[in-house]
Specification:
834 residues; 11-stranded mixed sheet; 9-stranded antiparallel sheet; 26 strands; globular; Class III HD-Zip protein
Length: 834
């Protein structure tokens, strides 16, 4: 009995020791932990074979069971996940604390402004009672009576310091005080999840805007970024520092000359002589403030002075305050007088609107700094393995080249060319433009020819127009012209005169590279597919590649304009590739609705409110847009010296054809000028739209025996609204030898990635693959006899070439009131992109 007990005790002791060896109670030595950490750094989740290999290769781990090593790695991954979550929560808490502080300061400023307005109201009431006329707003006196300092003061360092200190005081009173009557910018709501606090001036001389925001960069880095205005302000052509003085308080005073592009060919460019003061406040905040100096300071290049109008910068700048725990709070103020008297009346809103300045300068500054912060933290992922700085440089080069083409400055070598005497387009030539880079040289070029035009559009949404131009290039572009420009810029011996004959398929593939300015600006590669007509040199690439920048395509954002700028580029996409940009710019002249407002859609249900455009990038909304905008087109063409006249001829013809195509689409999306072929069905409150929706639902119920819509008591426009928002894709096609799609609800448009404007160009056979077409044709007789049919699930194709799967398709005849077959309706159930 004692022997049995002894054996049982030994067995229990062995079991316990085994448990301690492989269970959670094993204690690791420092050397063992270091060995495991080295493996974890290389592979956080090693396989069973890798763990066994680790035990064999590392003698100090030989007494550890493989299962225990697996548990160690599991615990290590768990600790890493908890650490990251904790760090993320701490970061969010710091941001919320800083944003709360910013909101409290803004609340204090608003309370002061309310008190000031109450005081002014009492004063005005008293003056009215005493029959005194008081028409001047006291809150504007600071901006109106700001002293003007002559450029001659630049020769006196003491005078410059006095001007700088005065500029600093006035800037701070605008950034954190009530010197300007600030009002909330429409569509921009403050809060922890928003970009920042955006306000614009009200009843103030000139145009002014202010923004406050939180950025995860240190103040010195932000100052460095913002002072380099060329990199983030796309309208800045040049900024030259002519004089720099050290200030007695450790700051610097600079005398600057700045040139600003004109956005269209209808107005001159602007230039500024300014004083810029950089200093540190007692609380550790950094300040960069700036103001214009009056006088007759001429342009450094007198020959180009006639192309500029002198404008003024009233006390403006940047206040950057460090936050506890890292990051900074930025206050940006821009206050300008752009001289609206020098532009046509139709363009004056661009120069008299504080909202435009906020979009172009103030908000752009904050968003650029935030973009740099995201890139620094690794939050931004770009395509084709390119670094963020490289892609941002490409985007800047595209915009700069496009602005140079629009403005045509004489000091860049541009001159006007009197070609055919017509005034619809402007032709300029540059025989001295150098497209060479450090590693590539463009040969055989006689120069660059630019054909450009600006025109007024009415009731056309800029975002809709640019989105159409981007997604439907074949509707307006001639791919062979793109091939000509691309071949002209190549360095191969066959590049220009030996260009191979190519037939382009009309399709384009968009390869996204990334957003270079938060979600406002996209950079992408476009591949235009083509087929060589001869089999010679089949090794040569048949495709054409374009580098393209697109901005302002979302109507729910507050961008200053919508742009589509592109340039031919080599398939290898070198960092220093020469670029010759062309493109479109659409600038709204009238204030657009609040960004939170739902827009209406151009389709058979144009009287319906639908979801915001941001959720449907392929949809085109416009019928509620009733405002003016100015469209600027500029196309550049390289030419050989002996072919200038020939290139000028086809360039003008091509640009005029592009303008004609754009105008046709603009008429189609304008509620006041709809395409006659579709206008009867697309007018607001169209009875045809309601009637067709009623026929679709009534015929479905008659043939299938169930209701298409869940609510059977609907009538009139409610049927149309419910059908439009139906979760399944519903399409209607005509009964012709070649059936054409005539209607689709929102889900149908999303599935096909098209719009009702382009829907009438799509035939039914294009959306099915071979097996789908066979099933459809085999069931056609049954559909016409029985009235409906269930088709099995399959694959169809969107207009962008993407495959779409669906579980089932229901087809039925749509009967009119006289029981005649009006069309066929298709319902694709549970569709999704493959």
């Amino acid at each position: 009995m004692a022997m049995v007990a002894q054996q049982h005790g030994e067995s229990s002791s062995g079991s316990m020791n085994k448990h301690l060896d492989c269970g959670k109670y094993v204690r690791y030595t420092v050397e063992q932990v270091e060995a495991l950490e080295r493996v974890y750094a290389e592979c956080p989740k090693p396989s069973s074979l890798r763990r066994q290999q680790l035990i064999r290769e590392c003698p100090i781990l030989s007494n550890i069971e493989p299962k225990q090593i697996k548990v160690w790695f599991q615990n290590r991954r768990c600790r890493e996940k908890q650490r990251k979550e904790s760090t993320g929560l701490q970061s969010v808490n710091k941001k919320l604390t800083a944003m709360n502080k910013l909101l409290m300061e803004e609340n204090d400023r608003l309370q002061k402004q309310v008190s000031q307005l109450i005081s002014e109201n009492g004063y005005m009431h008293q003056q009215l009672q005493t029959a005194s006329v008081a028409t001047t707003d006291p809150s504007c006196e600071l901006a109106v009576t700001t002293p003007q300092h002559s450029l001659r003061d630049a020769n006196n360092p003491a005078g410059l310091l006095s001007i700088a200190e005065e500029t600093l005081a006035e800037f701070l009173s605008k950034a954190t005080g009530t010197a300007v009557d600030w009002v909330q910018m429409p569509g921009m709501k403050p809060g922890p999840d928003s970009v920042g606090i955006f306000v614009i001036s009200h009843r103030c001389s000139g145009v002014a805007a202010r923004v406050c925001g939180l950025v995860s960069l240190e103040p010195l880095k932000i100052v460095e970024i913002l002072k380099d205005r060329n990199t983030w302000f796309r309208d800045c052509r040049s900024l030259e520092v002519f004089t720099m003085f050290p200030a007695g308080n450790g700051g610097t005073i600079e005398l600057l000359y700045t040139q600003m592009y004109a956005p269209t060919i209808l107005a001159p460019a602007r230039d500024f002589w300014t004083l810029r003061y950089t200093t540190t406040l007692e609380n550790g905040s950094l300040v960069v403030c700036e103001r214009s100096l009056s006088g007759t300071g001429a342009s450094p290049n007198p020959a180009a002075a006639s192309q500029f109008v002198r404008a003024d910068i009233l006390p403006s700048g940047y206040l950057i305050r460090p936050c506890d725990g890292g990051g900074s709070i930025i206050h940006v103020v821009d206050h300008l007088n752009l001289g609206p008297w020098s532009v046509p009346d139709v363009l004056r809103p661009l120069y008299e609107s504080s909202k435009v300045i906020a979009q172009k300068m103030t908000i752009a500054a904050l968003r650029y700094v935030r973009q740099i912060a995201k890139e620094t933290s690794g939050e931004v992922v770009y395509g084709l393995g390119r670094q963020p700085a490289v892609l941002r440089t490409f985007s800047q080069r595209l915009i700069r080249g496009f602005n140079d083409a629009i403005n045509g400055f004489s000091d860049d070598g541009w001159s006007m060319l009197n070609y055919d005497g017509a005034e619809d387009v402007v032709v300029a030539i540059n025989s001295s433009k150098n497209l060479s880079t450090s590693t590539s040289t463009v040969s055989c070029l006689g120069g660059i020819l630019c054909v450009k035009a600006s025109m007024l559009l009415k009731n056309v949404s800029p975002a809709v127009l640019v989105r159409f131009l981007r997604e439907h290039r074949s509707e307006w572009a001639d791919f062979n012209v793109d091939a000509y420009s691309a071949a002209s810029l190549k360095t191969s011996s066959y590049a220009y005169t030996g260009m191979r004959p190519t037939r382009f398929t009309g399709s384009q593939i968009i390869i996204p590279l990334g957003h270079t300015i938060e979600h406002e600006e996209m950079l992408e590669m476009i591949r235009l597919e083509g087929d060589l007509l001869s089999h010679e040199d089949s090794f040569i690439s048949k495709d054409i590649h374009l580098l393209q920048m697109c901005s302002g395509v979302d109507e729910n954002t507050l961008g200053a304009c919508s742009e589509l700028v592109f340039a031919p580029i080599d398939e290898m996409f070198p960092d220093d590739a020469p670029l010759l940009p062309s493109g479109f710019r659409v600038i709204p002249l009238d204030p657009k609705p609040d960004a939170s407002t739902f827009y209406k859609t151009l389709d058979l249900t144009s009287n319906l409110e639908v979801r915001p455009v941001a959720n449907h990038a392929s949809g085109y909304v416009a019928s509620s847009y009733s405002a003016r905008s100015v469209l600027t087109i500029a196309f550049q063409f390289p030419f050989e010296r002996n072919l200038q006249d020939n290139v000028a001829t086809f360039a003008c013809q091509y640009v005029r054809s592009v303008i004609s195509s754009v105008q046709r689409f603009a008429m189609a999306i304008s509620p006041s000028g709809l395409n006659p072929a579709i206008a009867p069905k697309l007018s607001l409150g169209s009875p045809e739209a309601v009637t067709l929706a009623h026929w679709i639902c009534q015929s479905y119920s008659y043939h299938v025996g169930t209701e298409l819509l869940r609510t059977v008591s609907l009538s009139g426009e409610l049927i149309l609204k419910t059908l439009w928002h139906h979760q399944d894709a519903i399409l209607c096609c005509s009964l012709k030898a070649l059936p054409i799609l005539i209607f689709a609800n929102q889900a149908g448009l999303d599935m096909l990635e098209t719009t009702l404007v382009a829907l009438q160009d799509i035939t039914l056979d294009k959306i099915f693959d071979d097996s789908g077409r066979k099933v459809m044709f085999s069931e056609f007789a049954k559909i016409m006899q029985q009235g409906f049919a269930y088709l099995p699930g399959g694959i169809c194709m969107s207009t962008m070439g993407r495959h779409v799967s669906y579980e089932q398709a229901i087809v039925w005849k749509v009967l009119a009131e006289d029981n005649a077959v009006h069309c066929l309706a298709y319902c694709f159930v549970n569709w999704s992109f493959v």
